[in-house]
């Protein structure tokens, strides 16, 4: 395999290089993810690989717009409530995730970094809430300017205003192709993995999978996790992997990356003129 989630991150740098980056006050992109099942056609690390790739893509766009950034190693210990009934789906308690992220963010603060952006593609509400709470605590308790990058849907569900100093609202919605939902290991995620990490997708198996036919009502049951989730999605995917379209997914992902990068630039220009 010709890739590594450590490539182009702090993990492949020396401590002197990290010190130099902190002295320059370079903003940190911090991918946050989970390890969880992704159907019979993709690996457990799908969200981790995609979060890492998101950070790399955002870094590239920022660089093209004259802003240097640095990527922290992906944190892949998070919360997976819906998938906890499947083997291989690691999950931690919300307080554990918040404490872990705060400890890691404190390291960045102690090294001299002052601006951190938490990037996540995992859709579990409790996971995103814990990430956001960690951003709030780091902002309030040890003065690190930390932004939890989220979408409008999360802000509304969490009953936030979106104007909190630790929140950065970006366009990250994926259009649903039909009445049936495609939100986990379906067409979109499978397409992104085929485009970005093709060695980790069993394309032939994906082509042979039928749609899960999951509606909003089914989603409500699925989100309870455990056996309830397995009843709705016995093969662990919610969507239609066979409908993968890597070209369309790549275009949608590019729009999301541009939106995140643009919002980061606006925030930094406003906060640090």
Q: What is the CA-atom radius of gyration, in angstroms?
A: 18 Å
Head-to-tail CA distance between termini: 43 Å
Question: Mean pLDDT across all residues, rounded?
Answer: 94
* Strand percent estimate: 5-15%
**Helical proportion?**
40-55%
List unreliable stretches of 5+ residues.
Answer: none
CATH class value of the domain at 10-173 and 254-271: Alpha Beta
Summarize the structure.
The chain has helices at 15-23, 46-64, 94-111, 125-142, 152-157, 187-196, 203-207, 216-222, 226-232, 246-271, and strands at residues 28-32, 70-71, 115-120, 145-150, 167-169. The chain has 273 residues and is of the alpha/beta class.
Key features?
273 residues; alpha/beta; Rossmann fold; five-stranded parallel sheet; 5 strands; 46% helix; globular
